[in-house]
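[Meeting: bench + compute handoff]

Bench side (C.D.) handed over the final construct sequence. Compute side (W.E.) agreed to return the predicted structure before the next meeting so the bench team could plan truncations. Sequence as handed over:
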Amino acid sequence: MGRKTTAVEKPKEPEETRTDTGTMPPVNPLDTGREVALMLAARFSADYLERKLREMLNATETYVTKTGNEFTRPCWAPRMKALELLLAYQVGRPVERSQSIVVNEPPRREDLLEKAKRSPVFRASLVELIREVKEK
């Protein structure tokens, strides 16, 4: 295939928010919330956002073949992103699952010796464990 173009372009970052290195300045998590929502509302009107979401929902890619023929097909990445944004706004985001993995340190030799001194049951279980290892 030949050249590929996409109907949706990545928005450019405003120049006044960039730092000297060209990157966005760090965001303080405490500044989020109502203030950020107000700043975004002042910068982007509801009509503008609706128009951009419609563009994303109808995004297409145009391909040019080696013979010069052009064909257009749906561009699914921006369409899916727009749909996710709309669903998050209208329905809400689902609670994301999180997993906590607790990694225990292996017991130290000194701790095992101390426990064996204090507990006859623990000593018996160690003897049984050693017997099973020798049998195998």
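W.E. noted at the follow-up: The first strand starts at residue 4 and ends at 6. C.D. will use this when planning the next construct.
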